Amino acid sequence: MKRMVCLFVLALASGTAFAEGSCPPGSYPIGGQGVQGCAPIPQTGSGEPRRMVPDGKWETRWGAVAEGKNAADPNGPTATGVAVSQKSKKAATQLALQECKRAGGRECEIRIDYYNQCVALADPTAAARNSGATLSSIVRAETLSQASAMAKQRCEVGGQQCEVIYSACSLSEFKSFR
C-alpha cells in the first residue's frame, strides 16, 4: 500500500512539471481549455528600447564675391566685396554688393555665390599685370586648399603668373536644439 501511495504522488508531481515544459526558456504558457501557446516573460526595468532623438540640425551657410570697376581709377584694381557665413543666398549677395560699393566699386556684380563650401579668387601678379595679363579666376570647392589650387591653376592657363588674393569658407553650422 505504501508503494501505491508513493507511485500516485510521483505521478502527480511529474504531470505538474510537464505542464510548463512545452514552452522554451524565457517564456510562459498562455491560453486554456485546449488552446495553448507561449508568451515571452516581460523584462523588468528595461522596457522599450530608447528612441533616438536628434539633438540639433545642420544649417546651410552662404557666401558671395562681388566685383566692380574702381570708381576712383577705372584702370586701377577691381573693387571687391565679399560675404561669408550668411544664413541665406540673398543676405550673402546683398552684403557682397554693399562691400564692393564701400570699396569704391561702381557697377558691382556678383561673380560667384556658394554655400557649404569654400571659394578662392586668383589674379595675375603685379608683374603679370604690367605685361598685360588680365585673366582672373574664381573657383568654389569642398576645401580651402582645393579652391585655392584650382583658382591659381585656372588663372595661369595662359602662362601668366597668378596669386590667390582671396579665399574663404562658408561651411554649414550645427545648431543645437537645447
Write up this protein:
It comes from Stenotrophomonas rhizophila. The chain has 178 residues and is of the alpha+beta class. Among the domains are: 58-116, no CATH class; 117-169, no CATH class. 28% of the residues lie in helices and 39% in strands. It is built from 4 helices and 10 strands, in the order αβββββαββαβαββ. The longest helix has 18 residues, at 2-19. The chain is rod-shaped and about 125 Å long. The N and C termini lie far apart (79 Å).
Low-confidence parts lasting 5 or more residues at pLDDT below 50? 15-19
Oligomer: single chain
How confident is the prediction overall: mean pLDDT? Answer: 85
Give the strand tally.
10
SSE order, as H and E? HEEEEEHEEHEHEE
Strand order across the biggest sheet? 5-4-6
Which overall shape is indicated by the principal axes computed on the Cα atoms?
rod-shaped
Helix/strand/pairing category: alpha+beta
Largest sheet: 3 strands, antiparallel
**What fraction of residues sit in β-strands?**
35-45%
Q: Give the terminus-to-terminus CA distance.
A: 79 Å
Rg, rounded, reads: 38 Å
Number of helices: 4
User: What is the helical fraction, as a range of percent?
Assistant: 25-40%
Keywords for this structure?
DUF4189; three-stranded antiparallel β-sheet; DUF4189 domain-containing protein; 178 residues; 4 helices; alpha+beta
Blueprint of the fold:
Blueprint: H1 2-19, E1 27-32, E2 35-40, E3 56-59, E4 62-70, E5 79-86, H2 89-102, E6 105-115, E7 117-124, H3 126-130, E8 137-141, H4 144-155, E9 162-170, E10 173-176
Antiparallel strand pairs: 1-2, 3-10, 4-5, 4-6, 7-8, 7-9
